[in-house]
Amino acid sequence: MDRTLQQRARATRRALLEAAASLFAERGYAGTSVNDISTRSGRTSGSVYFHYASKEGVALAVVQDRFATWPDLSARYADETVPPLDRLVALSYDIAHALSGDPVTRAGARLWAERETVNTALPDPFALWTAAATRLLAQARSTGHLAPHVHPARTARTLVRAFFGLCSLTEALEGAATVPDRLTDWWHLTLPSLQPAPLPPTAPGEAPRGA
Amino acid sequence: MDRTLQQRARATRRALLEAAASLFAERGYAGTSVNDISTRSGRTSGSVYFHYASKEGVALAVVQDRFATWPDLSARYADETVPPLDRLVALSYDIAHALSGDPVTRAGARLWAERETVNTALPDPFALWTAAATRLLAQARSTGHLAPHVHPARTARTLVRAFFGLCSLTEALEGAATVPDRLTDWWHLTLPSLQPAPLPPTAPGEAPRGA
Q1: Using the beta-carbon criterion (under 8 Å), do B166 and A165 form an inter-chain contact?
Q2: Which residue spans within chain A are E strands per DSSP?
Q3: Is the ipTM of this complex over 0.90?
């Protein structure tokens, strides 16, 4: 009995969160009311206040939910049969895809961009990406797949910020469909600096590599 | 006589634009009223309407003004005695500095971030940076200072977006004072891919270049 009530409460919380996320992603924080969340979710306004206390509370839950989905993604990127830098690149395409298509991820990014209009402190949504990238770079280092001058934590921080700027400006200026191509351009510029062992010396009579 | 009136009108327009820029940078578009612009500039609200027609009109002028200051900057970066990639790097630090400290540049960036709340189409504020970066990369190519696989326009687009993400996220997460250090981290990752001729083959007995 308790169990059924708990399940129903969880389903309501989730329906409210998803309705709010799609509204925040489309209209922004200021453009979304508790009433809109109620209408889109098919729940009452009272249930928004009951489960999240306020519109700020829902916004906070939406940003935190982005974090909650990370253990799943991380598990996938814990596959140690794949070289760590390959997992890092694959992860970036997955996140770019979520930023373009997943309402909760989109809402999290938009709420963060509009954080000055939200009346509560939002957690840094980049902390988990940075932690995941740091872990992969550290693995690359310990398996000899990282250029020796690359510092995992510092480089992860740089990569995440540049990556996020690239994805969000590309979507704003050219639309979401071009993001994967621009991401490829960016990796072409960035990946060589992460990889160890530059071109080997060319022996006389041998064609130079890359020619 | 006409001349004096024109000068006075120009001074008023400028005072209104600078007052509006500092308010937009601090409080955002929605948080700034025509009345606030009038108060801060010491001009009447009527003069805002007379010179810019509306709050949207002032916002548009602020974003366009960022463009207007570019010919000065570009002139400085037309100094062909300095290698083009060095000028590109120097330019990036100057823009990062303006993004942290110049009210009109800050206002332009914030208005662009909040463009969905502004009731008028704003020009792409990145077009001129991209054009400047493209020109410098093309010069680097024609003077043999660019890696052969680097396409100037495509690479300029990638660099500007990643650069802007890096600066704006760094400022948001760590404050403006850390931006130059993070920019240096980013150039360490990015510049090697732009430079031509990796280390030449080391002949036996010869010291490797860069050692």
Answers
A1: yes
A2: none
A3: no
